[in-house]
């Protein structure tokens, strides 16, 4: 069964600090990996998408990495802001890429 | 509208009733997806439309769930004989071409509560 596991489950950091979220997956055949940000009560919003051949992808203060050999990905957030408080979900697509398997997310809280 | 919209935003129903959830995708998007998100979990794939046809309905949990997209734009997710376990947020997403790397844009979801 395709699975996506994320750690930590939740994280609290101070504003301005950096943090790294982890994602491990067992999805086959692998198509691409995405990171989404989901604010409470809202739908997920795409941050990055990486295919098999890409090792890193940045979107502003967000940088995602992918190691397709070990089936691991990370999302690094630099100089965190209060508005970064949200759930960050790792999503892996298989086959033609349309069927997505979602992780349970890391709940990030940024405090003053 | 500029984004994906879903109605109603909240739906409370009694066990055994029938419900319909509506999704208006972004104009011009040919692909439409339905997901279900339980509390504290990531979204779970239900069904994917390419145009008017269901390209992949392997995520529908049982035959009480059905979805249509008759004109290739608006979609309706239909749940018959609702059960308490159906309570969740139902998310709809659309993408331009349905390709594997196309970004899926999500709506705000419909929170379904079955009493």
> What's the gyration radius of chain A in Å?
13 Å
Structural class of chain B: mainly beta
What is the count of DSSP helices of chain A, taking H or I runs of 4+ residues?
Answer: 0
Report the count of strand segments of chain B.
Answer: 11
Q: Please, what is the oligomeric state?
A: heterodimer
Please give the share of residues in helix of chain B.
under 10%
Poorly predicted runs of chain B: none
* Share of residues in strands of chain B: over 45%
Polypeptide structure, described:
The complex is a heterodimer of chains A (112) and B (115). Chain A has 112 residues and is mostly beta strands. Chain A has strands spanning 3-7, 10-14, 19-26, 30-38, 45-51, 56-59, 62-67, 72-77, 86-94, 99-102, 106-111. In chain A, the strands form 2 sheets. In chain A, strands 2, 4, 5, 9, 10 and 11 form a 6-stranded mixed sheet that branches. A 5-stranded antiparallel sheet of chain A has the order 1-3-8-7-6, with no helix packed on it. The mean pLDDT of chain A is 93. Chain B has 115 residues and is mainly β. In chain B, 0% of the residues lie in helices and 48% in strands. Chain B has no helices and 11 strands. In chain B, strands 2, 4, 5, 6, 9, 10 and 11 form a 7-stranded mixed sheet that branches. Chain B is globular, with a radius of gyration of 13 Å. The mean pLDDT of chain B is 93. The chains are: A mainly beta (112), B mainly beta (115).
């Amino acid at each position: 069964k395709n699975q996506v596991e994320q750690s930590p489950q939740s994280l609290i950091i101070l504003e301005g600090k950096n943090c790294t979220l982890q994602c491990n997956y067992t999805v086959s055949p692998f198509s691409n990996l995405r990171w989404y940000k989901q604010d409470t009560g809202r739908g997920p919003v795409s941050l990055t998408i990486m295919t098999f051949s890409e090792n890193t992808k940045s979107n502003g203060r967000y940088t995602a990495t992918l190691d397709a050999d070990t089936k691991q990905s990370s999302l690094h957030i630099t100089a965190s802001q209060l508005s970064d408080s949200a759930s960050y979900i790792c999503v892996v697509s298989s086959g033609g890429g349309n069927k997505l398997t979602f992780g349970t997310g890391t709940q990030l809280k940024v405090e003053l | 509208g500029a984004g994906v919209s879903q109605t109603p935003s909240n739906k409370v129903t009694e066990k055994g009733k029938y419900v319909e959830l509506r999704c208006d995708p972004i104009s011009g998007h040919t692909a439409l997806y339905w997901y279900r998100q339980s509390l504290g979990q990531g979204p779970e794939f239900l069904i994917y439309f390419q145009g008017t046809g269901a390209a992949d309905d392997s995520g529908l949990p049982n035959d009480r769930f059905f979805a249509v997209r008759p004109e290739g734009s608006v979609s309706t997710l239909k749940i018959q004989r609702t059960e308490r376990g159906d309570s969740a947020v139902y998310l709809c997403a659309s993408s331009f071409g349905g390709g594997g790397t196309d970004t899926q844009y999500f709506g705000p979801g419909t929170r379904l509560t079955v009493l």
